[in-house]
Structures are given as structure tokens and as C-alpha cells.
Specification:
The complex is a heterodimer of chains A (626) and B (293).
Chain A: H1 7-21, E1 26-27, E2 41-47, H2 61-70, E3 75-77, E4 86-88, E5 96-97, E6 103-107, H3 130-141, H4 160-166, E7 182-186, E8 189-193, H5 201-204, H6 215-221, E9 235-241, E10 245-250, H7 252-257, E11 261-262, H8 269-273, E12 283-284, E13 289-294, H9 298-306, E14 312-314, H10 320-323, H11 332-336, E15 340-345, E16 348-354, H12 367-383, H13 386-392, E17 397-398, H14 422-431, E18 447-452, H15 457-471, E19 476-481, H16 484-492, E20 498-504, H17 511-514, H18 534-544, H19 550-566, E21 569-581, E22 585-586, E23 602-603, H20 605-614
Parallel strand pairs in A: 2-13, 18-19, 18-20
Antiparallel strand pairs in A: 1-2, 3-4, 5-6, 6-8, 7-8, 9-10, 10-13, 11-12, 14-21, 15-21, 16-20, 16-21, 17-21, 22-23
Helix pairs in contact in A: 12-14, 18-19
Chain B: H1 2-6, H2 9-19, H3 21-50, H4 83-119, H5 121-136, H6 139-150, H7 154-164, H8 166-181, H9 184-191, H10 196-207, H11 209-232, H12 243-251, H13 260-287
Helix pairs in contact in B: 2-13, 3-4, 3-13, 4-5, 4-7, 4-8, 4-11, 4-13, 5-8, 6-7, 9-10, 11-12, 11-13, 12-13
Classes of the chains: A alpha+beta (626), B mainly alpha (293).
Chain lengths: 626, 293
């Protein structure tokens, strides 16, 4: 699940993630919906189209969010902790890891039950056992399920590939077949055995590819299983009208079996000040019913949001100027009504990479030339003016000083020595052999070309801006606009001098970003700069199998510093995610991995009621000119 | 009267054109555009030779989206660049496209039209087959295919438009040549034993020149229009200020009342196309010997 995303697309997906992380809410009072009882807390929100509710086959954000309401995994992300970390959910505690890092032993909580469903004997949900996890992981490896998640286990779990290959046969896959790495010790103990250390396994186990699915349901519903989710989670599905409406209700099994989950009790002081801890220790979920609508038309959803029918909204590009003022605060008339603008940096890095194969900007066999090329890269880094780029994009960016984005452990706190500084850029450029940008060999200005993966207006204008930044130190930048497939083709063939790309975190571990500098990952792998540095390679091989520890973070920082000094990339920015929410949506904190976080949200029904009743009394200034 | 009768076809046409006020207005507009195009090209070449970045490429975000004022007559765009300066550069791009595509399309069309009309038979069959084949291909797809092969940018546009638009003139030329083939001056030339090439290109061609001129004036704005929308779609001009690109970037903000870039560029396209079309019509009338009296 790695993304190379053209900028505008990434921006949208960033918003989607934020949208997803809302479990927006409201109160049922004003709705004329007979199914909703009095006094129930109901959350009304928007969702993108949901394709299916099978944890093994789902892939897109909207389905994953819906699945995470119904199903649960061994681990989940902590709601409040930053940097992100995983905590036990269906596991009793974090797993015991063997000294060689190859065996993970999970104790599974007792007294967890699946929801009642006709697929079980006499319709009563049974207790969760270790076998359910082994079964669920096998389902992801089963070729017949066309899972988008097999990469997470491929060649990592011992014996999973044997099962994978066996499932390619035409006859039904044999789930009784033993997989060596998925060892059920007893009914509540699961041992996962790996082929090599894989500390990121913990993050993978928090994804829906590892959620517990009861075998009875899969066999009972057959290919209708995507419509009949049966899980252990805080909600169960009431009704799903494809591409229109989906409704969940609090899972009654929790109360029946006495299962109690609580809101996290520890948070930072800022979180406390923001009121995020007032529910600390209280039983979740707070919302009784969740109703989500698929609204394709952005202006319709925007009107629904304004009138209080939806608890939150993304900000569509068409509305941006109206909603957000140039200094990144909210339109005054919206702010006065209590609407809040939520923004947070998205764990991704946008960068302009240099091709290490290129004689001018890359590596050279001649050590003097090599040093000069490095100075050129540093000079160009110094010529890049973040503030200007940010101004152009309506302040939607967040500065970044190295290869590791905030809030990941290992991200550099101090500003990079190659931040915007024209004098330094000119000096470095002269030392690189291009005084005033003049290439002494040709007597003309140095000309560089950058490959782009799209040609839309935004991309084009941002490159024109970039060309103007370089022009200030006398360097000419020519942009080549490619289609996305053509661009990827060029990248894979190691063509191009400079290029612009982005990397979005798969999991909150800097390893995910540092692998982009590992020489064995060079194109067509994700290291499209074809960056080669023996020291980085050595460090990377060391940290790849290391558990999270202060020592590992220290190595991360060391690597980041070496990379900044070598400047194989110009670190351009980290995008911000933006969304709006009404004041009645409480306990809201943006989360990069929002799956299952809805259970922590709360709705203040009275506030919502007031908004709905008073909506229209005061005209909102929506002209976009304050 | 006698003086006029003795004038050449061109002098005659000019006399008639002069009487047409609209045509003269269009002609002066065309001259104005031509001057701007030459100016833009000279500016571009000058900066290219001096190895400097021209002013119309300089960005200044503090000046973004400024309405027309005495400093910027046509306002500024999203990167704070002067719309008028870019508009003028756009004229030179438009002209280049119009002229170069005509230089590609017209010789091809004229050559095939002439030989098909003159020789008839198998040659004619072949040419008719060829242009029918070309005409049956959707033009836009063909242009896209060419742009994909030679890469985005002006070269793709030149070839794309040039290689697809010769069909019309080829048909016209074929018809004209067939008409002239039976005339006495051609029969006389044949009786004198002149070579076919000489008869076609030295004797017939000058007599059908007016068709080419008219086609050119009608071909030109069409090519400009095609360039604008190809650039608008992002497969045309890449890093020079083209009208298509300007319209594309202006449309995003139009609903917010940032009207100037869109308005002035559209107006420029409109005037250029209109002027050439009206002029072409007037020229056709002026050059048509049947209207001679």
C-alpha cells in the first residue's frame, strides 16, 4: 500500500483521511426518522462510496472506515498519543517478542464475543478465539479473495506463501491447511512466526487486513459476505443502501456480555486544554447510532453541512477561498457560528529528487566533481523558498527539514542548514562551478530539467514558481509535463534529471521513508533518486529489523542528517489536511490512521438542535471577500 | 476605367478590397496582431540570446490577482505576472502555429491536389483514397497520437495540425486543376511539349493561387483555435505563455470574479479569428474573377 501520488490527488486523499476520521454526529431529535428512538445520540455524516465490508478484500478509505466500526484487530492505534503508537485491543497486552525478533506471542482477551447473527448456532454470537485471527490472515493470503493486503504478509510470515500458492488451484482453498507461522497454541494464544525480523508487523496488525472474521459467517454467507459483516466491534450494521446511505447501531453484545472499553486517560497538556480528556476513563462508544450518506455533489454536501445535517465537511477546492482566509483562519461568519477549522500536517513528504545517475546533479566518479555536484544540489535547496510556495498554495503546506515528516520519531527538530537562503545559495553555486549560474563550459546559464507526473494548472503554476526561484540564482529550470504512466515509466528507467514526487506514510515509522534512500530499493523500486550511500545502506540494514527504541530513533536522526547533507532531494513540504466541523462534534482529534477512531467521538445534541433551529437567522457571508 | 482594366488580378483585387470597409478594418487588425507577434518573437529571441529570463515570466505573489490598473492594463494572473505581457507573447505563439502549420499543410495539399487533378487516373485514385483515409480519421485523435509520438510541445502541435489539415486544400486544388486542365492555355502548353511539372507548377498554379491565399487566411485562425484548445488540454505549449494555458488557469477563479485574464485572452482569440475569417471572405470575393465587372 505505498502511494506515489500526484500532488492534487494526494491533497484530496489527505482530506479524505480527515473526513474519515470524523465520526460526525448529531442528535436524532429533529430528524423524521422513525427507526431512531428518542433520546438516542445519532451521528450524521458523509462518506465516500463503499465497495464492500469484507476486511480481506476492501482497499479504499471509505470501506476501511466502515469495516473498522464493525470489526476489530489485535491492536489499534492510540487515539491521543503522538507520535502514533499501537496499543492492545483484542490482545490482552502487547505481544511477547522472542529475542531473535521472529516470534510474536499474543494473548487474546477472554470474554470477547461476536455480534449475534444467524450464521452462528441458534443465532448467538460466540466467543472470539485465536483461531479466528489465523483464519482471517489466511483469508488475506487466499488468491481467491483478491485481497489488496497480501503485501503486508508476503514472505514475512513463515509458510504464508505456501498457502498463497496452494490457493491458486481451482478447487476451494483449504483453510484447514497449517501455516507454520500462524500457530494457534491454545484457544486464546496465537504465535506469529516470521521469516525475518519485521518490527512493522505491529502496525500491520492494526490494519483491517488482520481484523478477526468468524469462519461461520464467511461460510454461511458465501459471496454475500461483503454485505453481511459480523464482527466484535462497537457497532453493527443496520442497513446499507449502496451508494446512498449506511447506518450502524451500537453493538448490543457489548452490554450483554459486559464488555467495557474506556476512553484513553493520558494525553498531553494541550490535549487537556482542548477538552480532549474530559471523557477520560468513561466507557465508549458515546454515540448510539451512526448514519452516513453518500453525497457525490460537493455543493449539496456543503449545504447539508451548513444547515447542520452533517457534522463535518471537507473543504472542496471550489469552496476554499470562501471558507478559509488567506492567513489560514476560518471565514469570520463561520467562526462566529462555532464552526471549527481542523488542520494537521499529513504524514507525507513532497520532494524534488535529483537523479543520482545524472552527471550534473548526481554522483560522479571524480571526487572533486562529486563534491561540486553536491554543492549544486545544496545550492538549489537553498534557493527553494518554502514561504513562497506556501503562499501560492493558500498556506496549505507545512515546512519540512529532512526526509522524515512530523510527527514520526526521528524527524529533525532543528532547521535544515539548506533552508531558503539566497546568499548561501549563490555562494554554494559559485563553489559548485557555476558562478552567477553561468556554466563555464558553455558560457550560458546552467539549465536543468524537471520531470512532472501531471500537467494540471496547479502543477504547472507551481513549477513556474519554482523556475522563478531558481532563476534568482541564475539557474534555468525547464519542466517536462508527462502523463502519470509515462512519468512512472521514465522513473523506472532512471531517466530524467530532476523529478517531483511524494511519499505517503504506510505506517507511522520513519523506516517507511528511509527505505527510499536504500540503494537496493533504487528504480524501479521506490528509491527513484537512485541514491547510493554505503553508510546509509549500512544504517538502514541495521534499523530494518530493530525494534522501536531510543537507539533506533538516534540512528534515524543520524541517517536524516546525512541525507540532508547529501541533498538527494529538495525537501519541499508536508501537506496539511483541512476539514470543518461543527462545535457539537466533541473529542475530535485528527488522526492519520482514523480507522476505528469514531468510537471516541461524542455528540452534543443540544448544540446541534440549536444550530438547526437558528440556521438561516443570520446570513453567512459567503462572498469570499472579508 | 481603362487603367483599371489593365491592372493585374492582384491590383484589381486590392482595388475592390479597399472599398470593403469591414475588410479594411480586419486587415488593420491583422496588421496589428502581426506587429505584436513580431515584437513578441523578437523579445523572446532577445532574451534567449542574452540568456536572461524575460519579464513576463517573473512571478510576484504579492501582486497576484490584481485587477486591471494603470500599472497592469489587463491585471495580473495567479502568480502576479502581467496579463498583457503574456497576452502579447501568446500572439507570437499563435502566429507561429498558424504560419508553420500552414507551411506544412498547404504544400502537401497543393502538391497532391495538383498531381491528382492533372494526371487523373491511377494517380487521382490514389490521392482520393489517401485524403479520404485521412479525412475519415477523427482529427483530434490524430493530433493526440502525433503529440504522443513526438512529445508534448510546439513540435507536436505543428505536426499534428499540419499533417491533418491538408485534406481540404487538396480537394479544392484537385477540383481547380481539373477545371483548368481543359483550358486552351494548358492545351497550348501541352502542344508545345512542355513537361507536366512545368505545366502544373508554372502555368496552372499561378492561376489558382487565389485559392491558396484564401485557404491560408481561413486555415490560419482554425489552426490558432486548435492550438488554443490543445494547450488548454495540456498537450500543447509547455512553458511559454500560450492563450490556451492562460484560459485554462484563468477559468479556476472566474467564479470569484477574477475576470480579466479570461476576458482579455478570449477577446484576443475572438478578434484574431474573426479578423482572419472576415478578411478571408473578403479576399475570396475580391479574387473571384466571376464577380469582375
Amino acid at each position: 500500500m505505498r502511494f506515489y501520488v500526484p500532488d492534487h490527488k494526494l491533497f484530496i486523499s489527505g482530506l479524505l483521511a480527515v473526513l474519515g476520521s470524523f465520526l460526525l454526529s448529531g442528535c436524532g431529535g429533529a430528524e423524521k426518522d422513525p427507526a431512531i428512538g428518542n433520546g438516542e445520540t445519532v451521528s450524521y455524516s458523509q462518506t465516500s462510496r463503499i465497495r464492500g465490508l469484507d476486511p480481506a478484500s476492501a482497499g479504499e478509505v471509505s470501506s476501511s472506515l466502515a469495516i473498522a466500526r464493525i470489526y476489530e484487530g489485535l491492536l489499534e492505534y492510540d487515539y491521543l498519543a503522538r507520535p502514533y503508537k499501537v496499543v492492545p485491543l483484542l490482545a490482552e497486552s502487547m505481544p511477547e517478542v522472542s529475542a531473535d525478533g521472529l516470534t510474536y506471542t499474543f494473548k487474546i482477551r477472554k470474554g470477547i464475543y461476536f455480534q449475534d447473527d444467524p450464521c452462528f448456532l441458534d443465532g448467538k454470537g460466540r466467543e472470539l478465539v485465536a483461531e479466528d485471527f489465523a483464519y482471517s490472515i489466511k483469508r488475506v493470503a487466499d488468491v481467491k479473495n483478491v485481497s489488496s493486503g497480501f503485501w503486508a504478509y508476503n514472505r514475512r510470515i513463515k509458510g504464508i506463501n505456501i498457502f498463497h500458492e496452494a490457493s491458486m488451484k481451482p478447487e476451494p482453498s483449504d483453510y484447514d491447511m497449517d501455516v507454520e507461522g500462524l500457530h494457534v497454541v491454545d484457544s486464546h494464544t496465537l504465535e506469529i512466526v516470521l521469516t525475518e525480523p519485521y518490527p512493522q508487523l505491529l502496525y500491520v496488525l492494526a490494519m483491517h487486513y488482520a481484523f478477526a472474521v468468524p469462519r461461520e459467517a464467511v461460510e454461511f454467507y458465501g459471496n454475500k459476505f461483503v454485505n453481511h459483516p459480523v464482527g466484535t466491534g462497537p457497532y453493527k450494521l443496520v442497513e446499507w443502501r449502496r451508494n446512498s446511505r449506511i447506518e450502524f447501531v451500537r453493538n448490543p453484545k457489548w452490554a450483554e456480555t459486559g464488555r467495557i472499553e474506556t476512553y484513553p486517560e493520558t494525553g498531553t497538556l494541550e490535549q487537556k486544554a482542548a477538552g480532549l480528556l474530559k471523557d477520560a476513563g468513561k466507557p465508549i462508544p458515546f454515540i448510539d447510532r451512526v448514519v452516513q450518506y453518500v453525497v457525490d455533489d460537493t455543493s449539496t454536501s456543503w449545504m447539508m453541512f451548513l444547515s447542520g445535517q452533517l457534522g463535518s465537511s471537507i473543504i472542496s477546492p471550489d469552496n476554499w477561498d470562501v471558507v478559509v482566509t488567506p492567513d489560514k483562519s476560518l471565514n469570520e461568519s463561520l467562526e462566529q457560528r462555532g464552526i471549527e477549522l481542523i488542520s494537521s500536517p499529513y504524514t507525507a513528504v513532497y520532494y524534488m529528487g535529483f537523479n543520482w545517475d545524472d552527471a550534473m546533479v548526481g554522483e560522479s566518479d571524480d571526487s572533486g566533481q562529486d563534491l561540486r555536484n553536491r554543492k549544486l544540489r545544496q545550492a538549489l535547496s537553498c534557493a527553494y523558498e518554502f514561504d513562497l510556495m506556501n503562499q501560492f498554495m493558500n498556506n496549505r503546506y507545512y515546512p519540512i527539514d529532512g526526509p522524515i515528516p512530523t510527527p514520526l520519531a526521528g524527524c529533525l527538530e532543528k532547521p535544515s542548514p539548506y533552508r531558503y537562503n539566497l546568499d548561501k545559495a549563490r555562494k554554494l553555486l559559485a563553489e559548485a562551478g557555476y558562478p552567477e549560474g553561468i556554466d563555464s563550459k558553455t558560457g550560458r546559464r546552467l539549465e536543468l530539467s524537471v520531470e512532472m507526473g501531471s500537467a494540471d494548472t496547479n502543477t504547472r503554476q507551481s513549477m513556474e514558481l519554482m523556475a522563478d526561484m531558481f532563476q534568482k540564482i541564475g539557474v534555468v529550470l525547464k519542466a517536462n509535463y508527462n502523463t502519470w504512466p509515462a512519468f512512472i515509466e521514465k522513473m523506472n528507467r532512471r531517466q530524467g534529471q530532476l523529478f517531483r514526487l511524494a511519499w505517503v506514510a504506510d505506517y507511522p515509522d520513519a523506516e517507511n521513508f528511509l527505505q527510499l534512500f536504500y540503494s537496493k530499493n533504487e528504480s524501479p523500486g521506490p528509491n527513484h533518486s537512485n541514491y547510493r550511500n554505503a553508510e546509509i545502506d549500512r544504517f538502514y540494514e541495521q534499523i530494518r529489523t530493530m525494534q522501536d527504541s531510543p537507539e533506533r530513533t538516534e540512528i534515524y536522526e543520524k541517517m536524516a542528517n546525512i541525507i540532508v547533507e547529501d541533498s538527494p532531494w529538495i525537501f519541499m513540504f508536508q501537506p496539511m489536511s483541512f476539514a470543518l466541523k461543527h462545535s457539537w462534534v466533541e473529542n475530535y482529534l485528527p488522526h492519520d490512521y482514523p480507522y476505528g477512531m469514531g468510537k471516541y467521538r461524542r455528540i452534543n445534541s443540544e448544540v446541534r438542535q440549536k444550530w438547526i433551529e437558528s440556521y438561516g437567522d443570520v446570513k453567512l457571508n459567503m462572498s469570499g471577500r472579508n | 476605367m481603362n487603367m483599371e482594366r489593365n491592372q493585374s488580378l492582384w491590383g484589381d483585387a486590392w482595388q475592390r478590397l479597399k472599398k470593403n470597409r469591414i475588410a479594411m478594418a480586419c486587415l488593420s487588425l491583422v496588421v496589428l496582431f502581426t506587429v505584436l507577434a513580431v515584437y513578441g518573437e523578437v523579445l523572446y529571441r532577445y532574451h534567449d540570446i542574452k540568456d536572461t529570463t524575460p519579464a513576463y515570466q517573473n512571478t510576484d505573489l504579492d501582486m497576484a490577482f490584481k485587477a486591471p490598473s494603470s500599472k497592469h492594463w489587463m491585471g495580473t494572473d495567479g502568480l502576479g505576472r502581467d496579463v498583457m505581457a503574456r497576452l502579447v507573447q501568446g500572439v507570437s505563439i499563435a502566429y507561429k502555429v498558424g504560419i508553420i502549420t500552414s507551411l506544412i499543410a498547404i504544400p502537401i495539399g497543393v502538391f497532391f491536389g495538383c498531381i491528382a487533378g492533372y494526371f487523373g487516373g491511377k494517380v487521382d485514385d490514389f490521392v482520393v483514397w489517401l485524403y479520404s483515409t485521412f479525412a475519415s480519421m477523427p482529427g483530434l485523435l490524430f493530433i493526440l497520437a502525433i503529440a504522443m509520438v513526438v512529445g508534448k510541445g510546439l513540435l507536436g502541435i505543428y505536426l499534428g495540425i499540419g499533417l491533418t489539415t491538408w485534406v481540404g486544400i487538396c480537394r479544392l486544388m484537385r477540383g481547380e486543376v481539373i477545371k483548368h486542365k481543359g483550358q486552351t492555355y494548358v492545351l497550348a502548353a501541352q502542344a508545345l511539349g512542355l513537361s507536366s511539372g512545368r505545366i502544373i507548377f508554372r502555368h496552372i498554379l499561378p492561376n489558382v493561387m487565389h485559392v491558396i491565399i484564401v485557404t491560408f487566411t481561413l486555415r490560419f485562425p482554425a489552426a490558432v483555435g486548435t492550438e488554443v484548445f490543445l494547450s488548454f488540454l495540456g498537450i500543447g505549449v509547455q512553458d511559454q505563455p500560450s492563450w490556451g494555458l492562460m484560459i485554462n488557469s484563468a477559468r479556476m477563479r472566474l467564479w470569484q470574479g477574477i475576470w480579466w485574464e479570461m476576458t482579455f485572452v478570449t477577446l484576443a482569440v475572438f478578434l484574431l479569428v474573426l479578423a482572419f475569417n472576415l478578411l478571408g471572405d473578403a479576399l475570396r470575393d475580391a479574387l473571384d474573377p466571376r464577380l469582375n465587372d
